[in-house]
């Protein structure tokens, strides 16, 4: 009976990989001037900050309820606008929908380019244009949502079953019918899941966009930090945490039902 010899993986590869990771971490720490000594020296300051934060100003909850609702509204509108715009771009980016490489490569390039810009930078760019308020925040979230949803959605479209599409082509369906009755029914649940996932992220992002003047609870956070009112800072953090946990729980339940 012939026995199959299993070749052991080379230890050299693992050792080289480990050394490479160590060198990268060491070089990063050296160039960013990070050390355990500085972390140790900063611990007393951290203790002082925590001491000033506790107990939180519970009465402040009433004052920040409206800005928190504004933050949620920003996330809702921004995610909706971004999600709508993402649909045609995702279709144009899918090689099984658009068979012309130049078109879907250009669509993917635009999508990838937009996704590289963080939402905080987008908000900082929109504030000088539209002024301090919620509109810059909504626009920043819209662009950010578009990048996420379009990327995930086009990848889902490219994995659909080609059978229904080939059958529709055989009976003479045009491109619009092909998309509405062959593509969309197969990916609509995925799209809803990606939309909710983006909404979860945007709730967290909207909470800090106000820090650069884009409205919402972030404005109050910036003011509280500026006036060293750390008990109010902790109140805002707790309020934001509660909202994010509730939204995440509801969103996860809906996504589980959809997929």
Explain what this protein looks like in three dimensions.
The protein is mainly α. Helix content is 79%, strand content 0%. The protein is built from ten helices and no strands. Helix 7 runs antiparallel to helix 8. The radius of gyration is 25 Å and the shape is globular. The two termini are 48 Å apart.
- The fraction of residues in strands falls at under 5%
Termini gap = 48 Å
What is the helix fraction of residues, given as a range? over 70%
Mean pLDDT: 86
The geometry reads as: globular
- How many helical elements? 10
For the biggest sheet, the summary is: none
Order of helices and strands: HHHHHHHHHH
What is the structural class?
A: mainly alpha
Number of strands: 0
Transmembrane segments: 12-30, 70-92, 113-132, 178-197, 203-221, 233-251
Family: Belongs to the binding-protein-dependent transport system permease family.
Subcellular location: Cell membrane
Main location: membrane
């Amino acid at each position: 009976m012939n026995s199959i010899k299993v070749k052991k993986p080379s230890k050299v590869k693992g050792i080289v990989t480990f050394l490479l990771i160590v060198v990268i971490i060491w070089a990063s720490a050296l160039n960013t001037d990070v050390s355990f000594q500085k972390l140790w020296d900063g611990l007393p300051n951290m203790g002082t900050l925590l001491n000033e934060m506790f107990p939180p100003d519970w009465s402040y909850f009433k004052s920040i309820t409206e800005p928190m609702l504004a933050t949620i509204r920003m996330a809702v509108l921004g995610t909706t606008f971004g999600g709508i715009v993402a649909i045609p771009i995702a279709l144009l980016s899918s090689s099984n929908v658009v068979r012309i490489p130049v078109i879907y490569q250009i669509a993917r390039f635009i999508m990838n380019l937009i996704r590289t810009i963080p939402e905080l930078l987008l908000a900082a760019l929109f504030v000088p244009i539209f002024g301090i308020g919620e509109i810059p925040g909504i626009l920043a979230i819209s662009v950010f949502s578009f990048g996420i949803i379009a990327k995930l959605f086009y990848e889902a479209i490219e994995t659909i079953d080609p059978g229904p599409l080939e059958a529709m082509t055989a009976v003479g369906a045009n491109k619009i019918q092909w998309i509405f009755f062959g593509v969309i029914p197969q990916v609509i649940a995925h799209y809803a899941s990606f939309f909710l996932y983006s909404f979860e992220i945007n709730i967290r992002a909207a909470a800090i966009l106000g820090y650069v003047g884009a409205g919402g609870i972030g404005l109050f956070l910036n003011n509280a930090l500026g006036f060293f009112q750390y008990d109010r800072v902790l109140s805002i953090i707790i309020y934001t945490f509660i909202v994010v946990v509730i939204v995440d729980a509801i969103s996860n339940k809906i996504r589980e039902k959809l997929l």
